[in-house]
Amino acid sequence: MPRRNNGPRLRFLHKRQCFYVVWTENGRSRERSTGTTDRREAEIALAEFLREGQNNGGPHEPDRVLITDVLTDYARERGPKVQAAERIAFALVPLVEYWQGRKVSHVTRQTCEGYSKSRNRSGGTVRRELTTLRAAINHAVRENRLTRSVAVHLPLRPAPKDRWLTKTEAGKLLDACTALPKAGRYMELFVAIALHSGQRKEAILSLRWPQVNLEAETINWNPLGRIQNNKRRPIARIPPRLIPYLHRARQFGDELGFVVHHDGKRIGDVKKSFAKACDLAGLVDVTPHTLRHTRATWGMQAGNSIWELAGFLGMTPETLEKVYGHHHPDYQKSAASNY
């Protein structure tokens, strides 16, 4: 088992009658002579040794590295390479504000709980932000800037929301979208695609016409060049009720452009327009992601094959069954009937 790295420190080796700087590197003990028996001179030598380590770029102990430096490096080096780079940027603001001036060694259960209280946000939001902190610390370890990682204590994962729309509510939402003065056309299309495909907001807003095959009636939700990650994007069949919306939208778009657009430009976000449409429709506690829940719920209520529906939505059968299984007509049917 690798030895714990406590950082460079002084030790007097009696057999050599001299102070040595000792430390652990890659699980092995290292040492360097200070050339003196005087404690004060040895401490000066230790300080020089630590300064050399800083100039060489590390790795350094957690009590010598600022959390803000770790976060900055992570955002600069990993941000451009991840799919949801904006999430890192959003998480960075409150993280930097709270951890300003603190070292990585200050990350403890107590300080993580203090962060949760100071944020006064939902458990899911705080969990995502602290997950970013954990990823940044682990990145620093991989990049040989930190000697070891520290535990980032996350709040409990919140239970999945069970909010979904009835067919009547969905109809009201579509009608409300058309009543929006400026965003009516693209919001109606966005909601129609979300309701019938069950895809995530980002996948819909980034969808381009080359990904849509109206003849074969399929959509490749994973655009060219995108690396698959946990947010799976499938190649899915276009539901019959969605086809008229896409044919109509095709008349107003160009061959390489975005399917959902405003005067040819990509829509940055639909959060505000969606909230206005929900107000007009009288819907409460509904977000764009609710439409994904809705499509999954409708599919389960209709008795769809879990394997096929999971592939259509781009999620694992295990997740589909765990979160939406209770909506299926066969849910615990045998257990409830045969006893």
Structural commentary:
The chain is mainly α and 339 residues long. The protein has helices at 39-55, 67-78, 85-99, 109-119, 123-142, 167-178, 184-197, 201-205, 243-250, 271-281, 288-301, 306-313, 317-324, 333-337; strands at 9-13, 18-25, 28-33, 212-213, 218-220, 235-237, 261-262, 265-266. It has a 3-stranded antiparallel beta sheet with strand order 1-2-3, covered by helices on one side. The chain has a 3-stranded antiparallel beta sheet with strand order 4-5-6. Strands 7-8 form a two-stranded antiparallel sheet. A hairpin with a 4-residue loop joins strand 4 (212-213) and strand 5. The longest helix is centred in the middle third of the chain and has 20 residues, at 123-142. The chain is elongated, with a radius of gyration of 28 Å.
